[in-house]
Design brief:
Layout (H helix, E strand, L loop, with lengths): L1 E11 L5 E6 L9 E3 L1 E4 L6 H13 L8 E13 L2 E11 L14 E5 L4 H4 L3 H14 L9
Parallel strand pairs: 1-6
Antiparallel strand pairs: 1-4, 2-3, 2-7, 5-6
Length: about 150
């Protein structure tokens, strides 16, 4: 079995909306669907380097290392009997909600109210990580997010 390593990053705007990116349909494979920033970790790259690179490539945002917070690592998603994706999950905050999507990867984007995020997502694995992000964002008395 092959394991590929990737990042998934949920980006939070100042007004608390969440960025979703729309992957275009691939005839015979899948319909268009919404997801957070995702991408592979390249050889020799740390997960933090990968998340900053993917954010820049997919949104045009140039965030600093302090703008991203690692939430979890080693989140395995079995794609097939021969392939597992092991994700590192991040939360990022941006002071600027103006983004430019990369047309080679995404056909649209939207800032989504948190309560509307689950219904927009295509993949169960994204819904599961969204639950983790929500728990992190929920006020606990001492921790109010990233």
């Amino acid at each position: 079995m092959t394991t590929k390593y990737s990042i998934e990053c949920w980006i939070l705007a100042p007004d608390q909306r969440i960025l979703l990116l729309q992957v275009p349909a691939r005839p015979g494979k899948h319909e268009a669907f919404w997801q957070p920033v995702t991408g592979g970790i390249e050889v020799g790259e740390s997960s933090q380097e990968a998340v900053l690179r993917e954010i820049s490539e997919e949104t045009g945002l140039r965030l600093a290392p302090d703008d991203v917070l690692e939430i979890a690592t080693g989140l395995d998603v079995v794609i097939s009997p021969d392939l597992t994706v092991s994700k590192t999950l991040y939360l990022a905050r941006t002071p600027i909600p103006d983004i430019v999507t990369n047309p080679d990867e995404h056909q649209d984007h939207r800032w989504t109210e948190p309560e509307r995020v689950p219904e927009a997502l295509h993949w169960d694995s994204n819904r599961e990580t969204w639950v983790m992000i929500q728990k992190h964002l929920a006020p606990t008395g001492t921790d109010h997010g990233a």
